[in-house]
Amino acid sequence: MLERTLAIIKPDAFRKNHLGAILARYEHEGFRICAGKIKFLSLREAEGFYHVHRERPFFASLTQFMISGPVMTLVLEKKNAITDHRTLMGATDPAKAEPNSLRKLYGASIEENAIHGSDSPETARFEIAYFFPASEIF
Length: 138
Ligand code: ATP
Ligand code: MG
Fold this sequence. Notes:
- The chain is an alpha+beta fold.
- The chain has a domain at 2-37 and 73-132: Alpha-Beta Plaits (2-Layer Sandwich).
- It contains 7 helices and 4 strands, in the order βααβααβααβα.
- It has a 4-stranded antiparallel β-sheet, with helices on both faces.
- It binds adenosine-5'-triphosphate and magnesium ion.
- Adenosine-5'-triphosphate binds next to strand 4.
- Adenosine-5'-triphosphate is lined by residues 53, 58, 62, 92, 110-111, 113, 116-117, 119.
């Protein structure tokens, strides 16, 4: 079944000019990029986006990192997009990520790990709607 997921190219990868390489990789792996924008998140937006982590010890640091520079938000579409994108991203900690995964290639640490991806159909629905009205998804 065709599925959609939300990806964020995080501020670290954006700063290091990895945008083009990551977008090319998505197309190469069969994802259709059906929405995308470059955006500077407000603290309120970053906190709302990561609200499931609000009790975690790394919440303040994570949200400050997410507003440390622009990000690119994307909607990606393919069969099994959510799971396949999580596989392509690799483990949360780039040191433990699989060879050739996006986090292994472009991530620097467990916090500065280059990419976000939705982890279930429910979060994908919430996260896509968080950044994109239906009129901006093609
Ligand atoms: P994401 O939700 O960004 O796709 P994930 O699902 O692999 O990543 P989560 O457990 O949801 O990982 O954590 C969300 C984000 O919080 C991580 O991507 C990372 O940037 C940061 N993070 C997670 N664990 C830690 C930690 N122990 N220390 C610092 N930052 C962390
Ligand atoms: Mg997560």
